Amino acid sequence: KHTAAPCPPPPGEPPPVPPPARLREHHFFPASRRAHKPSDCQSYEITGPVDKPEVPLPHGVVKEPVRILVIGGGHAGTYTALRLERLLRAAGAPRAEVRLVTPEPYLTYRPLLAAAAAGTLSPRHVLVPLRRVLRTTRLLLGEAVSLDLATRTAYVRTPAGPEAAPVPYDALVLTPGTTPAPPPPHALALHSLADALALRSHVLAQLDLASSTRDPAVREAALCFVFLGGGCAGVDALTALRAMAERVLSQYPGLHRDDLRWVLAEPGERLLPEAPANAGTYASRALRRGGAEIRLGAAPRTYRPGLLVLDDGDSLATRTLVHTPSAVRAPGAPPHPLLTTPALPLTPDGRLRCTRDLAVSGTPHTWAAGDSAAVPDPGTPGATCAPHAGHAHGQAHVLADNLLATLRGEPTRPYDAKNEGLYVALGPHDGLARLHGRTLTGRPGALLLRAHHLSRLPTARRKGRVLTEWAFAALFPREPVALGTPGTEPGEPP
Ligand SMILES: Cc1cc2nc3c(=O)[nH]c(=O)nc-3n(C[C@H](O)[C@H](O)[C@H](O)COP(=O)(O)OP(=O)(O)OC[C@H]3O[C@@H](n4cnc5c(N)ncnc54)[C@H](O)[C@@H]3O)c2cc1C
């Protein structure tokens, strides 16, 4: 809602009190954009439930900017900030400032981590520099350690020191994701780009080891790769690394495709718990067709490099255990430490209880999206949206719209879960894309998956680079090379 403030008072009246330094110095737009702003006799404000003190300025009385604080620079947080920027720019209403608290100055685009691990995509494309893509949002590098909902203050620990600094806000957006369970000792993880590169080096090192030993036991363990967790991450990682290993096998004369053993162990009853059952069935079939073993209801009892014992008593000779747990949480799972703030409503699986318009239930001025938010899915009574990147993006979009609508005193709209899809790669030419309740598989699924990632990656330049790389790789396949410390066992010093 735009309101024009009055022009300066007539001569003879007392001069207005000078504004606080913060307001005078604050500019939301670069100089080139400020040149297009309306005349100084007009100022724009966002009114609504957040009540801001009025500040007299030389050209009239305006309210202080509304302070929107986003915690977490992952999929949900980054896309919320991007959408808020766009809406504020389109409305010509710079009277709100957006701050993003994040431990890293980049977004890790996790659905492409497996491609970076397998060398089918340059690692740099998986990291999206936030300072580059967010134009007016202020980045606050650090970790939110606690919240005071009564005084609307977040406490943020920055790299500058151990003391947590207070950061006041008017509206809070919580998107800290979920804390992944720690991997078993000696297992590899796949959560960051560093993990992905270490995993690639490890797999290539096992092929080197197997081709240079005459000991059948060492060779068998080196060529058995076990992935623990059958969610998007596990399915994606196994298919990508298997394709990579098979691509380089011609460089190892003593090794054959049938010598390699790929095992996906899922503690639950089916693969892809984030998706409907038929998607999990399709993924199982596709993986088995490629020669992978699927072990459902299997959890590790003990593991040391060389031997994995499962809790059903079965054992596997392997030097590779990759921990890729699904983000679907079981009742009793510990919540993210920040969400244990008293007065935040939590579901039994440790997520924030939200309404369909993405407000945190019964908590004024507080919103949530992504893996840490339990948002009702009207398609399945009593169910909440599964934790995957599709929902994180879609919820971020609706959250930003609703937050600004609330500030303007306009009605909000519910998040429609069925519009957002799930996309999982099942091989170089196979993929699963679920959109608007329909599932596309095989080559069309793989094409839609790539189109989806291209549409979601921020900035046209990045989209162009990724598209060029994919097109170029179709003509001249990439040659994976170890970028870490091959031969090092996880958990052991290099
Ligand atoms: C290996 C892997 C592969 C995946 N593949 C797919 C796929 O193919 N398809 C799919 O749909 N989904 C996939 N997912 C799931 C998808 O990545 C997540 O659902 C999505 O990232 C959730 O977004 P989010 O913003 O809620 O959480 P995240 O993306 O995890 O972001 C949370 C952010 O909050 C930050 N943070 C945490 N605590 C704090 C704090 N106290 N203060 C400040 N910041 C904090 C974190 O550093 C992080 O940047 C995959 C996940 C993984 C790990």
According to CATH, what is the class of the domain at 181-326? Alpha Beta
Ligand inventory reads: flavin-adenine dinucleotide
Distance between the termini: 59 Å
Spans of at least 5 consecutive residues whose pLDDT stays below 50 are 1-7, 16-48, 486-494
Instruction: Label the structural class.
Output: alpha/beta
Work out the helicity level. 25-40%
Major β-sheet profile: 5 strands, parallel
CATH-defined architecture of the domain at 181-326: 3-Layer(bba) Sandwich
β-strand number: 25
Oligomer classification: single chain
Protein architecture, described:
- This protein has helices at 21-25, 31-34, 75-91, 113-118, 130-133, 193-211, 216-222, 232-248, 277-289, 389-407, 442-456, 460-475; strands spanning 54-57, 60-63, 66-71, 96-102, 106-108, 127-129, 138-141, 143-148, 153-157, 164-168, 171-174, 188-189, 224-228, 261-266, 293-296, 300-304, 307-310, 315-316, 320-323, 352-353, 366-368, 373-374, 422-427, 430-435, 438-440.
- The protein has 494 residues and is an alpha/beta fold.
- It has a domain at 181-326: FAD/NAD(P)-binding domain, CATH 3.50.50.
- Helix 3 packs parallel to helix 10 (389-407).
- It is globular, with a radius of gyration of 25 Å.
- It starts with 20 loop residues before the first helix and ends in a 19-residue tail after the last helix.
- Residues 1-7, 16-48 and 486-494 have low confidence and may be disordered.
- Bound molecules: flavin-adenine dinucleotide.
